[in-house]
Amino acid sequence: MAKNSDTHSGWTISDLAVRFGGEVVGILEDVPPILRPAPLDEAGIGDIAFYADKRYTAVLAATRATCTLIPRDCTFEPAACAAFIKVDDPHRAFVRFLGMVDELRPKPAAGIHQTAVIDHTAVVASTAAIMAGCVVGARCVIGENVVLYPNVTLYDNVSVGANTIVHAGVICGTQTEIGERCTIQPGAVIGSDGFGFVENSDGSYDKIPHIGRVVIDNDVEIGANTTIDRSVAGITRIGRGVKIDNLVQIAHNVRIGEDTAVVAQTGIAGSTVIGRRVRLAGQVGIVGHISIADGVVVLAQSGVSKSLSEAGMYLGSPAQPHGNALRLTAVLRNLPDALAEIRNELHELHERTEPKSV
Amino acid sequence: MAKNSDTHSGWTISDLAVRFGGEVVGILEDVPPILRPAPLDEAGIGDIAFYADKRYTAVLAATRATCTLIPRDCTFEPAACAAFIKVDDPHRAFVRFLGMVDELRPKPAAGIHQTAVIDHTAVVASTAAIMAGCVVGARCVIGENVVLYPNVTLYDNVSVGANTIVHAGVICGTQTEIGERCTIQPGAVIGSDGFGFVENSDGSYDKIPHIGRVVIDNDVEIGANTTIDRSVAGITRIGRGVKIDNLVQIAHNVRIGEDTAVVAQTGIAGSTVIGRRVRLAGQVGIVGHISIADGVVVLAQSGVSKSLSEAGMYLGSPAQPHGNALRLTAVLRNLPDALAEIRNELHELHERTEPKSV
Amino acid sequence: MAKNSDTHSGWTISDLAVRFGGEVVGILEDVPPILRPAPLDEAGIGDIAFYADKRYTAVLAATRATCTLIPRDCTFEPAACAAFIKVDDPHRAFVRFLGMVDELRPKPAAGIHQTAVIDHTAVVASTAAIMAGCVVGARCVIGENVVLYPNVTLYDNVSVGANTIVHAGVICGTQTEIGERCTIQPGAVIGSDGFGFVENSDGSYDKIPHIGRVVIDNDVEIGANTTIDRSVAGITRIGRGVKIDNLVQIAHNVRIGEDTAVVAQTGIAGSTVIGRRVRLAGQVGIVGHISIADGVVVLAQSGVSKSLSEAGMYLGSPAQPHGNALRLTAVLRNLPDALAEIRNELHELHERTEPKSV
Predict the structure, then answer these.
(1) Which among A91, A210, A252, A322 is annotated as catalytic?
(2) Is residue A113 annotated as part of the catalytic site, yes or no?
(3) What are phi and psi of A94, to 5 degrees?
(4) What is the CATH number of domain B13-104?
(5) Residue C132 contacts A, CB cutoff 8 Å
(6) Is residue A351 packed enough to be buried (19+ CB in 10 Å), middle (13-18) or exposed (0-12)?
(7) Which ranges of chain C have pLDDT less than 50?
(8) Range list for CATH 3.40.1390.10 in chain C
(9) Among B262, B325, C26, C122, which one has the highest count of C-beta atoms within 10 angstroms of its own C-beta?
(10) pLDDT in tens, B21-48
(11) Prediction pTM value
(12) Using the 8-state DSSP alphabet, how is residue A184 labeled?
């Protein structure tokens, strides 16, 4: 689906040291060029890795990486035919290297594949790439440099901002608005109907039409097979810079504040408002119609059933402040023994205090 | 993908009052026509909202909605250039308005898109709309007014009843039977193989062929990216009127009774039988081979490991009757302090009763 | 999408008895041929079922199955016009019958559908079936007898081993490698970007490019709408014989050992290493950067936050050894009463020991 440019001759360690503002440790003569990034424990010849955490010094000592990025204050020496580069932040430098490799990867060429079906009222930027099997509905607007990978479906009136990547199989319901520089992972569904029904007296349900929409601001990431429902009326909104992982459920009329991160398999029920810079760990559940304050962190598998109005860490189902939850966990771990011991003591006290029949 | 009919001139408040059997409050002279529904706190000029809950009287007082549906006994007065309509059930009236707007939306035109691939043995009603990229297998039967949105895949021998809407990217495995007036949200998978294996003596597994099928009765809703597995043999059945939310897992040979509702991210393991009018809240887990009685309500994140034979509310993992679970939650919230206090008292009693050495 | 071969005349009970090495019980004269498998309680004329568990003797007594597979030591007698076959392992024999029926089902014919889009640099075995709407990227390699059901998307450089079945709507990211004899259920996403970001000082995030890949060994099953993320660098690896259910999340750089089974809606966070023959039940959560020993069994809804270095069963959130967890559950079920009773006893002891004021 794109031109190959897998072959490149790599980077010299000197070149990398300059790019990262780093200092080389080791003798470079016999050191081969760097071709690929790799984890420290899997790296080999031609690989660059990083070391940033003292728990992994044994791994560093044993690594076969041709080059390892290390902190300035690290005094280790590289093996033969290998080198270290001392930098301020080894992880950041490694991520920069990932970006350099990513840059070299073939990008889809601009243009509309002949099997894509584009409504004649849609507007597609000439720099956008619309790949095979995509379907773009009436009055859609596709911005500059957008990529729609294969088999994407956009219903009518969807807009996709410049430089946004929409991966294969993504589905956007009518009137969905996606900002710039977003990445939508494969299989995500944005703008499905919310789960809303009116119960009849006989116990059956009538569907509430959902005629609102989803708005996704700039710089958002949506994970694979994640679902975001359209609102009843008004907007389900994902704020600027929000990062959402795979298989997350965002219900109708939810609003998520800027730079919030939501980890895999978490669910947020209808009309709940999540603040800015919130972190929801994996498999968290948040009930509907509550609000979560800026800066709240909810730990994995927690269940939040009431509004959280103060920043801080929360844990448990129902969620409580982290310190309380840890105390509870510690107590529970020992509870059967503790109760048995208490009963023993009570028994002993009973015996000791029992009125003696003489 | 459909003709545009976004432009319409709106409804007058008098007209709406007649339709809803309501009574107008306010002076209509300067009130503009109603164009859109909106939440009470987001509504503005041309919007209709509803007010039904006294917790929101401050929101009602501040609303900028041109029209608000309110209960008969509400004595508030509208702002200038706005009106209220008193009705028996403001939410119901609002839902009726949603339906009126929904009616105006463009519907896919009947016919088979030229890029759809329909097996020559399939039977498709002339009023059905089969959109771009759909694949319809051998001997499928597609009823009157059915819509298959883009990139739907039906394997062989699938039937879809009249007036059912199948959204984009839905996949139905062979022999799946879907009733009338159902809505299948995008990305749902119906009729994947169940998760069944026979373990060999060396710890490896042999796959059990799943040759049963999924039957979905009339008036069912299936959520986005939800998965429903085909049975080993026999039928995985979703009863009439069942409503299933997004990312729900229904395993092989499960049966769900009429008018039951299943909220997002809940999972039901193999061969379990769910009664009628059951409600399973979000992220609930139900083990296999049990049965849940009619009218049971299981609250969010609960885990049900034994059959529930009586209607009522259940909570917790393992789930227990709601009252018991609440008592437990209350006790747990205070447990570390309670144990510390008990130990103090024991200590004090010990000291008090200790035989004095004189 | 394939030729019909639904019509076949069935198997005689004598024939089945020979195939399964079994012994017929009952008079075969009036017994019709066997056409289909069915559950014992749903079976009727022409159906074969199995009975293996004494809890179901009442069901066996009432079954209308034309043939039932029973254990050697079972002394029940069949009804009129029905027969039993005594075998060593009724379930195994039933599974063999399922396989016989499955064999007769139409298989997709080899060849590339005219609507599939295959990059000219891809290599597709002549025995492979590439169905409608599939998109196969540059330099992909598709092995012998592979089936790609409709609307599958393979990015560039994906390889699929011989005899692997890839169901409709599956998406494989670039460089994904799938082994032989695997089954990938509909809608699964393999090789989406991992969820990794670097936090900036202003609280915003920079995306970490994920340039690693996913490798799936032979004989693996991946469930419907399951997501498996590509690694940052290196490999996310699913070992030989692993079985993964629907809606499971496998994060970047996870490694799963041979013959491990993962039930629906479970999530495994980044870089965690799962051993061989591990079983993770439904809705389990495993944090990142830990390791789970061979043979560990984690029960449903558990949360594992620390490495488990010993085989055995674990339960709870946080997970603990099963015996401890059961003791805790038993204590919790009674905790409110137990605490009330302890307080009563303390009160009584207090009263009994109170220094009397005379």
Answers:
(1) A252
(2) no
(3) -65, -45
(4) 3.40.1390.10
(5) no
(6) exposed
(7) 1-6
(8) 13-104
(9) B262
(10) 999 999 888 889 999 999 999 999 999 9
(11) 0.95
(12) E
